[in-house]
Amino acid sequence: MSDLLERLRGRGWRMTAQRRVVAEVLDGEHVHLTADEVHARAVAKLPEISRATVYNTLGELVSLGEVLEVTTDKRAKRYDPNAHRPHHHLVCAHCGAIRDVHPTGNPLADLPSSERFGFTVSDVEVTYRGLCPDCAAA
Amino acid sequence: MSDLLERLRGRGWRMTAQRRVVAEVLDGEHVHLTADEVHARAVAKLPEISRATVYNTLGELVSLGEVLEVTTDKRAKRYDPNAHRPHHHLVCAHCGAIRDVHPTGNPLADLPSSERFGFTVSDVEVTYRGLCPDCAAA
DNA sequence: GACTTGACTTAGACATTGTCCAATGTAGGA
DNA sequence: TCCTACATTGGACAATGTCTAAGTCAAGTC
Ligand SMILES: [Mn+2]
Ligand SMILES: [Mn+2]
Ligand SMILES: [Zn+2]
Ligand SMILES: [Zn+2]
User: Fold this and answer.
1) Which uninterrupted H or E stretch holds A99?
2) Residue among A13, A45, A108 at smallest CA distance from B126
3) What angle do CA B65, B70, B74 make, to 5 degrees?
4) Which fold has domain B3-80?
5) CATH class of the B88-137 domain in this structure
């Protein structure tokens, strides 16, 4: 995460306690927190941090390409710090657990030009759904 | 759509003016309306229809498998009457236009078991993103 | 170290999307 | 025609997200 903080400093960011805390929360593998979850964890480290600052900071990180927005369910957006390695997601339909996955092949190649309707297609998101081991056992 | 109304009658649905109007609105190809858009179009045909009824009816149609929920953007859910032909979506990143597409191949086969984390994977959603012809020209 | 300034943070109002409920209405069978 | 279980309604409430005015502070300058 200090990598991230360094990059942000290089981009002219003022290093505030709030931004440091948000960056700390957004660290690790398979991390896909909602804004309110980020806020709750940030408050544990810095009680006076506001919801508005969390939303602002997340939005800025997304604009900078340091964090991805993921919408695996129809509720809140989730924020994914694993922005520098392209990947897709595997979601448990029962408990919502999310794993990063790396399918083989290139789904873009599977969309023939006759199915492109003249669009310039630049990106593809794949969401696999199923049951995680815990939920399948229950 | 009278097909749909027949199926619903067969399932024991009471045929109300409200349900008929929602079914009428949800007709056609490449239709992906939000609940409020459905409501606005329904009101044009039946001014006294309430938001609650539109939400109730859409929820029931989804439960019955007659309509799909689609979340191509991070805003409102969209309702897709094309539930009987599996397909994916192509979305314009600029104006939000949505087309139904039918990629070749089977993306499920592209997820090796080493990338399944013990999940029972049953479904996959693919969303292609790019620019529609109009937005690319502008 | 003190000063300055524009970027940053905050609380809370407001907006959008969706859910829930008690009261009222009605489709369809008896 | 009557009955009643099912359906609809309006509005309160909830969850998520946006915006703004006022106060705060990081970091450059002296
Ligand atoms: Mn991820
Ligand atoms: Mn569709
Ligand atoms: Zn699970
Ligand atoms: Zn477009």
Assistant:
1) strand A98-101
2) A108
3) 150
4) Arc Repressor Mutant, subunit A (1.10.10)
5) alpha beta
> How remote is the CA of residue B92 from the centroid of ligand 2, in Å?
14
Residue burial B49-76, b: 16+ Cβ < 10 Å; e: rest: beeebbeebbebbbeeebbbebbbeeee
Domain extent listing, chain B: 3-80, 88-137
Q: How far is CA A107 from CA A129, B103, B126, in A?
A: 17, 8, 8
Dist. CA A100–CA B115, nearest whole Å: 9
| Residues across chain A | 138
Q: For nucleic chain D, which protein residues have CB less than 7 Å from any of its atoms? A: A 9, 14-17, 34-36, 51-52, 55, 59, 75-77; B 12-14, 16, 18-19, 46, 48-53, 56-57, 74
Total count of residues recorded for chain B: 138
Interface mutation target, options B32, B80, B115, chain A, most CBs of A under 10 Å: B115
Q: Do B71 and A69 touch (CB under 8 A)?
A: no
pLDDT in tens, chain B (138 residues): 568 888 998 888 999 999 999 999 999 889 999 999 999 999 999 999 999 999 999 999 999 999 999 998 888 999 999 999 999 999 999 999 999 999 999 999 999 999 999 999 999 999 999 999 999 997
Distance, in Å, from the CA atom of B41 to the CA atom of A46, rounded to the nearest integer, reads: 48
CB-CB under 8 Å, B111 with A130: no
